[in-house]
Amino acid sequence: xxxxxxxxxxxxxxxxxxxxxxxxxxxxxxxxxxxxxxxxxxxxxxxxxxxxxxxxxxxxxxxxxxxxxxxxxxxxxxxxxxxxxxxxxxxxxxxxxxxxxxxxxxxxxxxxxxxxxxxxxxxxxxxxxxxxxxxxxxxxxxxxxxxxxxxxxxxxxxxxxxxxxxxxxxxxxxxxxxxxxxxxxxxxxxxxxxxxxxxxxxxxxxxxxxxxxxxxxxxxxxxxxxxxxxxxxxxxxxxxxxxxxxxxxxxxxxxxxxxxxxxxxxxxxxxxxxxxxxxxxxxxxxxxxxxxxxxxxxxxxxxxxxxxxxxxxxxxxxxxxxxxxxxxxxxxxxxxxxxxxxxxxxxxxxxxxxxxxxxxxxxx
Amino acid sequence: xxxxxxxxxxxxxxxxxxxxxxxxxxxxxxxxxxxxxxxxxxxxxxxxxxxxxxxxxxxxxxxxxxxxxxxxxxxxxxxxxxxxxxxxxxxxxxxxxxxxxxxxxxxxxxxxxxxxxxxxxxxxxxxxxxxxxxxxxxxxxxxxxxxxxxxxxxxxxxxxxxxxxxxxxxxxxxxxxxxxxxxxxxxxxxxxxxxx
Lengths: 364, 196
Prior knowledge:
Strand content of chain B: under 5%
Largest sheet of chain A: 6 strands, antiparallel
Largest sheet of chain B: none
Radius of gyration of chain B: 17 Å
Low-confidence stretches of chain B: none
Number of strands of chain A: 17
Number of helices of chain A: 9
CATH topology of the largest domain in chain A: Rossmann fold
Number of domains of chain A: 3
Low-confidence stretches of chain A: none
Number of domains of chain B: 1
Mean pLDDT of chain B: 87
Order of helices and strands of chain A: HEEHEHEEHEEEEEHEEHEHEEHEHE
Number of strands of chain B: 0
Helix content of chain A: 25-40%
Order of helices and strands of chain B: HHHHHHHH
Strand content of chain A: 25-35%
Oligomer: heterodimer
CATH superfamily of the largest domain in chain A: Nucleotide-binding domain of ferredoxin-NADP reductase (FNR) module
Shape of chain A: elongated
Number of helices of chain B: 8
CATH architecture of the largest domain in chain A: 3-Layer(aba) Sandwich
């Protein structure tokens, strides 16, 4: 009995002693103090208690870096240039950062922990990214699995986007909220609303969330992000190739073009499987009647049913592109769709004389 | 009291009685973390550090607290608690001063806690009735021996990347075979001296 109590007392005593030693060690080892984070030579500056990740610190201070995985280091979107104070490149980052990026100091913001004063370089545009609160104003079903969702901006009420950019919508996930990227389909001049075209992905966190939204629901998103850059030269022809929900940035680009340059030449190639996947066709045909330089080609990849009527193309969409485009200069292309389509179309476009810097694509 | 001279304990615990190759303790992290030499040396260093200090600390607790109170039977629990605390400390230390190593070691850093080589060193110390200096020497030598073993293996595995290993043996299979062969080589040292 006494031995039992004694052994308990000794065990507890030693455990407590060890715990105290650890607490002391923690106080001196884990405490990094407050660190100054400077962005773009001081255009944004803030003090941050050390220890946390750079991504969450930036988010706290309203600097929104694209990130789709929620800081797990699995999407590779949250790249920032750390000029000073980032420490060595970590093994969790190496899969996403190639050698020349590593030389330039590119890091994944979700993996870098703030331990020293830091000096960062971000594209100026990212500093213009805002967090928006918006309300669903209209939902339309385009096909059996694609919905068009319109948001009216509440706070702030205006968005400044370049055509083809995307937003990141906050969706509740099973392990906490996640951000998912969707291209904006409303044209740049409609700056009080954001429209998305979303395909329901079975088991997808964000697409399920968006498809279950009802009119009047509140959502939060950040944006705009993205590298799509529509040329300002009205003589430069634009070729858009898309499939499925890849319609979003393309619809944005085309409507923006014809609002600003009514005579600019533009080709739209859109690939679908069957007739039931076709949407927006009538709208674009009407636009083509008003603007003779606008050409619309929809292609069906599945063979037609026996009694089906279809006056568009058949076969994969890159074949239509190959058939209808001539080799010319001064053109830009925007591709948006599944990776095999993008690869096939890119090859065709290169054969037609496109330079790589004139081909913008978004694979999903 | 154990009469073995300190130098013999030191050399013996590294070579003839290498805790990994003679007793086959601490195999799990040895198998997994021996891909690259820097990682292996880092883990070896951490194990050496923990082993040296835990044998010292455990010696003091065992002989000045547990033996006088006749509580030798809770030695296992106490030893493990001390090891766990030291590993926590090492973890904080490594994260602060070498984040690269921290991420390379990943889960195996906290798992030093359950590295049987470390508990093994403390138990050998009790079994062989070492005094304090002998215990610390044994802990330090044992850690160095383990570090040497994993570094050797990592060197071989880096070279093995260029050779054509049969598919069925790739990874752990080949490592087990090589560990066996190295263990036999180390047995060659056993004729020189043997720790009791």
